[in-house]
Amino acid sequence: MSHMQYETRYTLAPGGIDARAMNARIAALDEDLGSDRRSADADPLEGLAAQGRAVGRVGIVGASGFGIGLALRVLDAGIPVTLFELERASLAKGIALARSSANGRDGRMALLAATVNFHHLKDCDLIVDAAPSDTAGKQKLFRRLDQVAKPGAVLATQASHAGVARIARYTRRAGEVLGLHMGSVSMTGETWQIVPGKDTSRTSLGTLVALIWRLRQEAEVCDPCYAFIDVKTPAQPWNIDQALD
């Protein structure tokens, strides 16, 4: 593979799994694609990453441990970050944590803009929700992000499949909403898991994949169209394309 190792994880979906229906669907995909199928050795995310938009600035909502950890990784790649917190005291604690974790790399801190002004997120190409809150809080946050974020900006949440779909309904840009989990440690390093909703666009998914590679991390995508089982299966490009139709 030319990029990081990639695999799709399947997990049991609510309501169980219709094995015959799933097998029939896979067989139909195999037949339809025929000679157009790419080699199993090809990186299935190459095409998607090429369709993604460039990320010039990342917005992070919440100076939590997750938010600061994400900010430092993005800053290490030379990408400016806008860190938003509702309370100045929480923002100050987050900045102090970031500085103490910088390990002498003060240059990257110059790329960090900390703010309590929500509208300062308007120039971000990707905005990640790192704030701990309940369903009502997520609803309010993503409605505000929908109003403030520029067209085409990707909005990421820590939610699972069902949560992504629900959060996407709070916006008028369901194609730009997806889930993101980071920090899962594998044999080859840290894996970042992308959780697309049923309406997430190829462009949005490709944008996040390309960014993860730029941060020199591994990407793992959960396929929302297949019921999940508790094994890992090598991802195939035809599965990804079908999942995002």
From TrEMBL:
- Which residue ranges traverse the bilayer? none
Q: Which InterPro entries does this chain map to?
A: 3-OHacyl-CoA_DH_NAD-bd, NAD(P)-bd_dom_sf
One Pfam family, short name: 3HCDH_N
Tell me which domain of life the UniProt entry assigns to the organism this sequence originates from.
Answer: Bacteria
What sequence ranges are listed for the domain 3-hydroxyacyl-CoA dehydrogenase NAD binding?
58-218
* Keyword terms of this UniProt record: Isomerase, Lyase, Multifunctional enzyme
Q: Note whether Isomerase occurs among the keywords.
A: yes
Which named protein is this? 3-hydroxyacyl-CoA dehydrogenase NAD-binding domain-containing protein
**Annotated source species:** Massilia aerilata
